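Model: Ready when you are.
Researcher: Fold this.
Model:
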Amino acid sequence: MIRSSLTLSAVLLTAPCALAVPFEFTGTAKDDKGNMLYQESHRVEGSCAEGVFQPTSHQVDYRKSPRADSFADKKLSYDNATVRPSVEFDQTEYNELLTIRYPEPNSLEIQWQAPGGNTENFSVSFDDRLVVDAGFDQFVRANWDKVTNGDSVEFRFLAPTRGEHYGFVLEPTSSDQVNADVVVRIRPTSLVLRFLVDSIVLGYNREGALTDYLGLTNIRKNSDENYTAHIRYDVSSYPDCELTP
């Protein structure tokens, strides 16, 4: 029995990863007049690897008010890569469903049931530069030293309802609407796309937690357009390891 206990202790001590306390935070989305649009509740499960938090799963529930039933939810799994999660997004209010899967190492599949009821299927090839959905948050943290030192980083970002990915750049910026320790923006690299897609401004605190999101959201205003909002985040529980390398 003593030998078994010692053996188990040795395994636990030498294990490269250990389960972390869940990372939990809430976002409140408001329009440009300060009216509340909806609230997001996030719970990220993960582990600590070499002192840094590595997400494994992420649950998001969307509500019109804190005590209301959810009108949409999203489930993400980071089995493929921390910047390219698998996605299940269900916006029941508009009968919209979106899934993103990775059947092969450099290929993803998208199935999108649009609000009108039509279903679109896409197969998309990619390389290591691709970022998908909430993977942008991990992408910022993975490049924390660069952006906090004033450098920019180019990448590709998936537009799932178009079945394509486009060139973007992550770069330091400033904003009179975002008061945070670190402020960055994501903007298209193509001049043509800049006329069609506005930049997204992100705020982070010194610990590497998202504090602000300013830009186009994934929540529908109606069947034809999504909300543009300022989402402010409050952390209720940090993991018991660092968020940034």
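Researcher: Now this one.
Model:
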Amino acid sequence: MGSVRWSVVTCALLAASAAHGGDGPKQATFDAKHELEVAIPEGAQVVRIWFTEPQSDAHSDVRKMKIECAAGNPSAARDDEGNTYLYWELKKPAAGAFKAVTTFEIVRKEVRMNIDPAATRPYTEADLKGMEKYLGPTQYVIIDDRIRDLAAKIVGGEKNPTVAARLIYDWVLENIEYWVKDPAKLKASPTGSTEHCLTTKTGNCTDFHSLYMSISRAAGIPTRITYGSFFKGPLDGQDADQSYHCWLEYLAPGVGWVPLDVAIADIFVDGVTLTDENKPKITLTTADGYGGPDPKMVDYYFGNIDERRVVWSHGRDLSLDPKQAGGPVNAMAKAYVEIDGKPFDGYKRKLTFKEIRKAP
């Protein structure tokens, strides 16, 4: 493994780790309001609603959760990845707007990981046992001969998961452009698609991470996706939806699941020219605004995740409980609604927030 490529990647990773490792992880606290409106059509017999809720984990402490809904209190629901939801089932509801409002406080910690390649090692059979769903395709995360050939070209014979994952990260940054850089010409897919990202060389966060997952999984690296939202600094206290965002984790033996966000990293690469058209979109794509290209931020988002986030769900091609009538749910970034057994997209979600304690 003593190749020039190993040395270059290792030096870059250690430099990035050192640059962000001087202080402890940052922490911030937010008051959030999460709203859902469903436009129920005339004649609907059964309306079923799964609404995402903030997930608590080692980096997120969700507090003071309150739910307001004229239709009554929700039931608890889950999915096969262990995500939890608020669930309503309405029989013969009146036509019009269903509305649910949740409020909560969240204390969110920055995620920092050890990305020294020497901290991990090649996978053993025991490491990969039970990892099948993190190594295979999904509906929009394809693994075919093109992807396998591309993975082999990018990774070569590299067996260290951290070095291999960084090689894929760098390839995506060099070959794919985030659509907000030129919104008049570059377009995202509506589904989050490897195919779209590979063929058009552009996309949104889910397109970027679909392609990354396809390549990574084809290279034998277990990789999983998280859906959440930023608490975007420029929108603090404003009546403006935060939309959604996604990021990834790859498995490094001896270290654990290591996060990365190659989509946001692409905003900080050299060569991004701000214009009147793209500046607002680029500014509101990042966690806390945009100050221009920044190689340190490109390195940062391999192994670290900022504290300005909330987690809604993990995984794709989800099976819900109570069971949905339609096929696997592509992703749960906002909500999933069925009316009379068919998926229904006539809903709006809005997330707003106020930062109440800033990161030190």
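Researcher: Key takeaway?
Model: The chain has two domains: 4-25+112-312, 27-109+318-357.
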